[in-house]
Write a structure and sequence with these properties.
Blueprint (H helix, E strand, L loop, with lengths): L4 E6 L2 E7 L8 E4 L5 E10 L2 E8 L32 E2 L3 E2 L3 E3 L3 E4 L5 E5 L5 E5 L10 E6 L7 E4 L5 E4 L5 E4 L9 E4 L5 E4 L7 E2 L8
Parallel strand pairs: 6-9
Antiparallel strand pairs: 1-2, 3-4, 4-5, 7-16, 8-13, 9-10, 10-11, 11-12, 13-14, 14-15, 16-17, 17-18
């Protein structure tokens, strides 16, 4: 079968988002000079040269598609309509005063080994990044449970790190208020720490890792 398929790859596997629904073994996809994307199936030869018949072109099929050309000098003329929200968007390795992590956002350690994410389901999790784990699966090693979906994490100006539900209710905190200017960092050793100035840690997840 020659079927052009667009997949979303996630930690749980892969999901087909869109397909041409074609069945022509030996086909090939071509981005043509006229701006059309076409899937061609083999169809014999003409004067010693391959004669190609388009088996699929993204035209106006049952009102589903926009015109064939993909990109012009302005906005897109056609898309597959399969935009997905990234599972995690990384925002550096630290959270400074008055900064927040929104649902689906994360800190990543400078060496790329660890990540600290605010899950869309509401919880917090520290994990070894998938690319660093044998088999490619993320390894969670610390977490905070919270059943309020779309919660956000705020590094407050008073030094307290607080997880808020969408209605503004505090769901978890480090209780480090009274330390204005404090900031949160995910260290290369996998430990999540709050510091103020050049002093000792105010709070830590106590999750120092020995990376393999």
């Amino acid at each position: 079968m020659a079927n052009l398929v667009l997949y979303q790859i996630t930690h749980g596997g892969q999901t087909a988002l869109w397909a041409t629904g074609t069945d022509a073994p030996g086909s090939r996809v071509s981005m043509q000079s006229d701006g059309s994307l076409a899937l061609y199936g083999p169809a014999g030869t003409v004067a010693g040269r391959p004669a190609r018949t388009a088996t699929w072109v993204p035209g106006c099929i049952a009102g589903r598609w926009q015109p064939c050309a993909l990109l012009g000098g302005g906005p897109a003329l056609w898309t597959s309509g399969t935009q997905v929200t990234p599972e995690i968007v990384f925002k550096g390795d630290r959270l400074l005063p008055d900064q927040t992590l929104e649902p689906g956002e994360a800190l990543g350690s400078g060496n790329g080994r660890a990540a600290f994410a605010v899950l869309r389901e509401g919880g917090l999790v520290l994990f070894e990044q998938a690319a660093q784990v044998p088999g490619g699966d993320p390894l969670a090693y610390w977490s905070i449970s919270n059943d309020a979906a779309d919660s956000r994490l705020a590094m407050q100006a008073d030094g307290n790190l607080v997880l808020y539900s969408p209605d503004g209710t505090p769901r978890w905190a480090t209780n480090t208020e009274g330390n204005p200017g404090a900031w949160l960092v995910l260290q290369d050793d996998g430990n999540l720490v709050i510091y103020v100035g050049s002093g000792p840690a105010l709070w830590a997840s106590h999750t120092v890792r020995t990376w393999q």
